[in-house]
Amino acid sequence: MALGLGRLKLPWRTADSHADDPYWDFFINTPAADLANSVPDIIRQAAEGNIFPTKADIHTPDITTTHVKEMARYLGADMVGVAGLGPDESGGLPFAVVCAFRTDHDPRVAKGIGGQVPVQNASFVTFVLSAWIRELGFRASVVRAHDTERLAVRAKLGTLDRDGKLTTPQYGTGVYVADVIGTDLPLAP
User: End-to-end alpha-carbon separation of the chain, Å?
Assistant: First the structure.
């Protein structure tokens, strides 16, 4: 027997659902007092694994690129692209895998745990994706580049606005670009 309770109201669905929460501003804007409590810093300090000594049989660069993008999306990336790198970029690795994550709060401004969620997700995805590429027998390293948004444009994820911020058709400027993965896995930019 079904119960007719009326329309279900979800408290987090309204636009101003955080207006009356006294802890929300603290959650979004106050950085961790101890960086040992910050997941991205813990992941960044983790040692990279070894490269598997035998390269895996892979498909064409186009199909391999599709597999890498599918894996990144499976792990949680909202947007994924591949850009070619010059010989002076990324230690001689020819390709960069660029992952972007939708965000409600710019992590450069919102330094609290809540504002850093896309950074945490990005650290996880790039760490696991680079480990997966090394398991295939190819070099892969997370590169902390300061021009990640320009690499995202080269990977055709969006364009730069006047302020140099990535703007995408799907999410506008509500995007965080992760540290890129430099790799010698044959990909198609």
Answer: 57
